[in-house]
Amino acid sequence: NEYKSYLSMYRCSKRFLNLPKKTNRTTSTLIDPLNIHERILYSDDRLVVYNKGMHRTVHGGPKAGKTLMQQFEECNLLPIYPVHRLDKDTTGVIMFGRDKAMANHLSYLMRHSKIIRSYLAVCVGVPRPLKGEVTSLIGMYYKNDKYTLGVTKRQTSNTKHTCTKYRTVKTYSDAISILQLQPVSGAKHQLKIHAAQLLKTPIFGDMRYAPKALLHNDLARRYLKASLGYHHLHLHAQRVVIPDYKDTSGNLWCTRTGLIEQE
User: Fold this and answer.
1) Neighbours of 83 (CB within 10 A)
2) What is d(CA 67, CA 59) in angstroms, rounded to the nearest whole number?
3) Which residues of the chain form beta strands (DSSP E)?
4) In the chain, N or C terminus with fewer CB closer than 10 Å?
5) Per-residue pLDDT at 11
6) Phi and psi for 210 in degrees, rounded to 5?
7) Nearest to 137 by CA among 52, 198, 76, 48
């Protein structure tokens, strides 16, 4: 009965995050299970909104495999210019401009917190309070004979003021929670750092900022057992909201389901 309970948790989490089926990292994980055109949520002469899969980088990098930009080139979708990035194992909604001017405009709106971005994450533990916001400086600091990125109190030229709004969508006792995270600012690994170091609810699959919590939390281990060993990062870009798109009085909403609304 206990195993069935944790299996139910995983199935609910999978539905919330739209996680793909478990795959073999050594064979097929660098191949997108969906055709690239099927992953386009919205497209016009200025903007493309895309549902990014797992194990896919936007640009190249160490052990990156085939990138999104290479996929777009193969499908004759270039020229296209990324507005922002998602980490390799973060899935979900990502925006591209059809030209540099549009990409720069959307980047400007993001820097000034005009575009609303929402993420869903499956986390170890439950935050207290269940809803609120956290703020901190994020930057590099020296720890254990190496430089580490994380929350710091010392302001330097390399630190950023960051803020994340959050609310608890669902909980399973005090062991697991599904959180909706909304970054007000933009910093590298902001959501993973805030979840692990400030909310004390690290995201499943985040082995960089909170490995001890993922390895030693007994209830979390049972969840992973119920998920059949699904150890990937449980973080999904759920939606973006672009204000006054195309000079209209309404906002453009793009979600992981492809739902497009102007209201």
Assistant:
1) 22
2) 6
3) 40-43, 47-52, 81-82, 91-97, 116-124, 131-143, 146-152, 160-172, 176-183, 235-242, 252-255, 260-262
4) N
5) 54
6) -150, 55
7) 198
Q: Which of 209, 177, 215 is nearest to 191 (CA)?
A: 209
Cα–Cα distance, 256 to 43 (Å, whole number) = 14
Q: Please calculate the CA angle 136-137-141 and round it to the nearest 5 degrees.
A: 130
Whole-angstrom Cα distance, residue 116 to residue 207? 27
- CB distance 97 to 77 below 8 Å: no
Tens digits of per-residue pLDDT, 102-146?
Answer: 999 999 999 888 999 999 998 888 999 999 999 999 998 877 778
Contact, 130 vs 166, CB < 8 A? no
In this prediction, residues 170-176 reach a mean pLDDT of 82
Residues 198-221, mean pLDDT to the nearest whole number: 76
All residues at 6 or more sequence positions from 58 whose CB lies less than 8 Å from its CB, including other chains: 52, 67, 68, 69, 82, 85, 86, 94
Residues 194 and 238: beta-carbon distance below 8 Å: no
pTM: 0.80
Distance between CA 94 and CA 91 in Å, rounded? 9
Q: What separation in angstroms does the CA of 37 have from each of 24, 79, 163?
A: 24, 16, 34
Neighbours of 24 (CB within 10 A): 7
Place of tokens 């994340």: 164
Q: What contacts 261, CB < 8 A, 6 or more positions away?
A: 252, 253
- As given in the structure block, the two tokens for residue 192 are 């993973």
In whole angstroms, give the CA distance from residue 197 to residue 179: 15
